[in-house]
Design brief:
Oligomer: homodimer
Low-confidence stretches of chain A: 5-18
Mean pLDDT of chain A: 90
Number of strands of chain A: 14
Strand content of chain A: 15-25%
Number of helices of chain A: 13
Largest interface: A-B, 73 and 71 residues
Strand order of the largest sheet of chain A: 4-3-5-6-7-13
Amino acid sequence: MTQDTQPKARARRGRAAGIQTVAVDAVTWTLDRPPTINDVARLAHVSKKTVSRVINQSPFVNEETRTIINGIIEQIGYVPSPQARGLAFQRSFLLGLVYDNPNAQFIVNIQEGVLAACRLAGFELVVHPCDQKSPHFLNDAKQFVQRQNLDGVIVVPPASENPQLVEVLRDLGCRYVRLSAVSLDEAANMVVYNDRQGAAEVAEHLAALGHRDIGFIAGPSRHRSAHERRESFVATLKNHGIILRPEMVEEGAYTFESGEVCATRLLTREPRPTAIFASNDEMAAGVYKTAQRLGISIPRDLTIVGFDDSPIATRLWPSLTTVRLPAKDLGRLAAEKLIIRISSDEEEGHTATGVVSRMVVRESSVPPRG
Amino acid sequence: MTQDTQPKARARRGRAAGIQTVAVDAVTWTLDRPPTINDVARLAHVSKKTVSRVINQSPFVNEETRTIINGIIEQIGYVPSPQARGLAFQRSFLLGLVYDNPNAQFIVNIQEGVLAACRLAGFELVVHPCDQKSPHFLNDAKQFVQRQNLDGVIVVPPASENPQLVEVLRDLGCRYVRLSAVSLDEAANMVVYNDRQGAAEVAEHLAALGHRDIGFIAGPSRHRSAHERRESFVATLKNHGIILRPEMVEEGAYTFESGEVCATRLLTREPRPTAIFASNDEMAAGVYKTAQRLGISIPRDLTIVGFDDSPIATRLWPSLTTVRLPAKDLGRLAAEKLIIRISSDEEEGHTATGVVSRMVVRESSVPPRG
DNA sequence: CCCATAAATGACACCGGTTTCCTAATGGGG
DNA sequence: CCCCATTAGGAAACCGGTGTCATTTATGGG
């Protein structure tokens, strides 16, 4: 180490470690490193540009040549280097997922949907959990995008509703899609989920069952989804002649504990509601616990409805009537939208896209007693 | 488009879209594309190699020169291109996470731990959910590694226990770390979690409470963790003079439904167990439902213990005594191990690493009645 | 039979970093 | 005062692909 070389010897180590020996063109050929486009070109007796054409499906290649080259690629197991491709294309073929949503199932479902779309287009997904309350939040996000030069980013709520974060992405020139309950941005940058529909269905369901004394546990007002669910629920009840009195509404924090607190308030009030709609399943679980603690039988004495259709909805007993958001579709749509824009390199794709939530009736909702 | 150019015009589009104007060295300087190492070199009046030296913390740079260059980097917001670096280094600075575990919370926790380690080392994480039953399972995994030339892969159970998958990774020359309840591989490739400890603690807890008629719901025998939990539980009970009779053991599938089925069998048997240990929380939730259905009061008539400390453990009522696996630490350890090996480019780091599960006592476990 | 035209392919520079190898300046010892 | 070791920095090749443009080879019409 006379010069720059760092203490640690940097022995090059390829992608395929094993030594390959392949019979190509009646010649045995050996290589101790992953094959490159040059190897393919040499074996096929063509220039690397022609190999490049085959890889990129250029129509200007003789059918015979294409077959030969593909055969060689197959035989020696050549895979184009993503780094080199990325460098030349100015692309990384990487999408990012930024999330701070505490609902793990939701995140995993989104990931799955995103990856379904990615796979078809040859993209991969890089994840970035974050914390809006952290002082490094914006800087971390910026580094996240820059460090691997992401082609696009998908932002999950509630982070998706943070205008500063979006500004950072825009400044970086990074394409993004935000998931939210309302359209906060140009259509091209949004995939919205309709929470109004689910909430309205719940209102109709409760009305149809005959409930009149209905309690509502709202989500934190800074969340768009909470606002949407509340508004739609209240409006639909009103359409059915039911006025939700202010004292029958409590605002929770989308957490189990806040569900307990709100439920305690609602259930010790007179007249006691015969049904409670909690804005998410976590809080609905809190209502379950509170009801059981107070000796209130579910569903006989109290109908409960949640929102999200998270795993606990079916684990609780009786199983919880709730609203299902097709999270996987949401992820898929977002990724597709992003990929189209990246691939076409246009800012088109301005059509609005979204998914609709639907109610799932289970055992926790029945007509009121008497 | 006379020649190769694809129908879609491929207008180059950089990482930073906005046009920058920065005053450097008393000269105003404008650029409409992300700055490169060449820009930095030009502005600093040095060669790009010197800039490279600064970026890579080479000790052979004059302190003054270094300061100037760092200043310029700062001012124009230069970020080295990961593709170019990767191409030259033969590295991607990308780690992969392969999982088929249905427990979303577990996955999200692992991700978080992995990312904590990645952030410190400048790596990012690419995720790959998969399905061992799919015919494309192995091929998908292979493509996953090759497509972005991952530097290393972390495999989560149960996929981590698939020998074919590991063979694929090994053939690709891709470094990997497997997470499992037992060491299935060289120490360098494993991070193990000790499920025996947790299961033993549960056995001691139940024995100490005075339970003698104990039911056990095992996990699917093909899972190493299931085997470990079972063996440790049975052995520890025996140490306390309690023999787990065969008819008190049922094998479930780690699912809620199988928990119900097994619980039904156990609870309709005479003598009825006063305590049931389910090998995971999902199945424990199934036991709750069954007990409630059969009118058996928890914990008065039946003590229940689970394993995993998943979110439902605290959502159930009464809250579930269970065993916590520090999943985040698990992820962090795996990533650290991998990163050390990648960075040192040696196959060292052969020390065995792992985490230990511990029991968490909640409301569902009490002494037997009478 | 020749040339215009299109199809197929190659030469070469380039993407943005890194390595290798080389030169220039500096300072201390003989 | 000269020589050599040491430090600082540069030129050019390279990593593995891509774009541009020129060149070669068939084809068909006049």
